[in-house]
């Protein structure tokens, strides 16, 4: 059986205030064409269909059109909700839509009810694990701790229990939206660290033939059977070196897996340029980036006059401007943004405590209080999105 594995469409998202709706429409054209041209048997969409819980109308219309076009191919689609989606909104009408071959899996309680597909070698059970917010689903899965590994592990126990009731030789596929250990992050994924450690080991998915992951935006192979498709478009300059693709996965008669990357259309390449303003304006080697989306980091010791306007004369699609002046060893103070880059909210808060106390950081009890406060805020935000 041949699957087309994709995820993280983020319909409605912009790139530095530039609308990507046309680019997203072009990707969906490409998706439908690939389904038809490559003899795909089923489409797997591993979450983050939308960019936010209440998407703009244009994004909803684009999604609606995509559903009709996928249904018209006669190829079943299995789709789960991600951490950016409102599971309730995405799942509206799921029962009716299923009659057209579009299988929406947005309810955690239904994670062990598979979509059953079949080919010449027998049945394939496709299980959809929507994004599982630990604090919101721990009661459903009766876990002692509100942690990602605990709730996904409990969901997978249900999957394996159901699979054990199936006919011998039934092959299995799981869709999940999670941060699996070994994956490489980018700047455009929303933090999912509620409940402490957000990464789950790949071994939690043992016992199934293929795991179609969503959440991380780079196409990645965690194991031969556990893969991220990545997002079809770049959503931050940290993805400038990504090759955006989908996975074309062939599942053999005995569950053997082979996979091929299928490239996605690139509406406009990304470029991260660094140097003095004069160097960026004069360097002939940079001609190939003149029609790219550009993030420029200027290293001039003194901030030049009108840098954005001058850059735009050569690079009209300059969207980001960063100043990192080259200074002597005596002047190495990093900017506030640089000092915060890559640090969690918890680390920033602990540094602040140390700062106001003259270097004495929080003790273990205070760290626990801070950790709980941040968890409460994140859970409240997630609950608000679910209830919208």
Automatic annotation (TrEMBL):
This is Nuclease SbcCD subunit D. SUPFAM superfamilies: Metallo-dependent phosphatases. One of its GO terms (biological process) is DNA recombination. Residues 267-355 form the Nuclease SbcCD subunit D C-terminal domain. InterPro entries: Calcineurin-like_PHP, DNA_Repair-Maintenance_Comp, Metallo-depent_PP-like, Mre11_N, SbcD, SbcD_C. Heterodimer of SbcC and SbcD. The gene is sbcD. The keyword GTP-binding does not apply. The keyword Nuclease applies. Keywords: DNA recombination, DNA replication, Endonuclease, Exonuclease, Hydrolase, Nuclease. Belongs to the SbcD family. One of its GO terms (molecular function) is endonuclease activity. Residues 1-218 form the Calcineurin-like phosphoesterase domain. SbcCD cleaves DNA hairpin structures. These structures can inhibit DNA replication and are intermediates in certain DNA recombination reactions. The complex acts as a 3'->5' double strand exonuclease that can open hairpins. It also has a 5' single-strand endonuclease activity. Pfam families: Metallophos, SbcD_C. It comes from Streptomyces lunaelactis.
């Amino acid at each position: 059986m041949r699957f087309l594995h994709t995820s993280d469409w983020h319909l409605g998202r912009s790139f530095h205030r530039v609308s990507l709706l046309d680019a997203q429409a072009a990707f969906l054209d490409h998706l439908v064409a690939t389904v038809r041209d490559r003899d795909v048997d089923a489409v797997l969409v591993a979450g983050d269909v939308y960019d936010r819980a209440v998407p703009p109308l244009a994004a909803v219309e684009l999604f609606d059109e995509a559903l009709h076009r996928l249904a018209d191919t006669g190829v079943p689609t299995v789709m789960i909700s991600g951490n950016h989606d409102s599971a309730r909104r995405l799942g509206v009408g799921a029962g009716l839509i299923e009659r057209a071959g579009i299988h929406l899996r947005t309810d955690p309680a239904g994670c062990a009810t598979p979509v059953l597909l079949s080919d010449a070698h027998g049945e394939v059970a496709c299980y959809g694990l929507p994004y599982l917010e630990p604090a919101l689903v721990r009661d459903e899965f009766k876990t002692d701790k509100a942690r990602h590994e605990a709730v996904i592990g409990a969901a997978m126990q249900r999957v394996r229990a159901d699979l054990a009731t199936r006919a011998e030789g039934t092959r299995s596929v799981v869709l999940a939206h999670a941060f699996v250990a070994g994956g490489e992050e980018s700047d455009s994924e929303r933090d999912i660290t509620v409940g402490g450690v957000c990464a789950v080991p790949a071994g939690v998915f043992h016992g199934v033939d293929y795991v179609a992951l969503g959440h991380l935006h780079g196409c990645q192979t965690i194991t031969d059977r556990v893969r991220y498709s990545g997002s079809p478009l770049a959503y931050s300059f940290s993805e400038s070196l990504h090759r955006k693709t989908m996975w074309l996965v062939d599942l053999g008669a005995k569950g053997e897996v082979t996979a091929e990357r299928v490239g996605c259309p690139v509406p406009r390449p990304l470029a991260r340029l660094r140097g003095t303003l004069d160097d960026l304006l004069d360097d002939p080697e940079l001609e190939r980036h003149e029609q790219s989306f550009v993030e420029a980091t200027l290293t001039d010791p003194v901030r030049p006059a009108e840098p954005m306007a001058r850059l735009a004369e050569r690079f009209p699609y300059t969207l980001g401007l960063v100043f990192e002046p080259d200074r002597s060893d005596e002047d190495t103070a990093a900017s506030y943004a640089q000092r915060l880059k890559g640090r969690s909210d918890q680390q920033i808060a602990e540094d602040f405590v140390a700062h106001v106390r003259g270097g004495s950081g929080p003790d273990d009890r205070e760290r626990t209080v801070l950790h709980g406060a941040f968890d409460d805020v994140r859970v409240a935000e997630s609950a608000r999105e679910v209830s919208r």
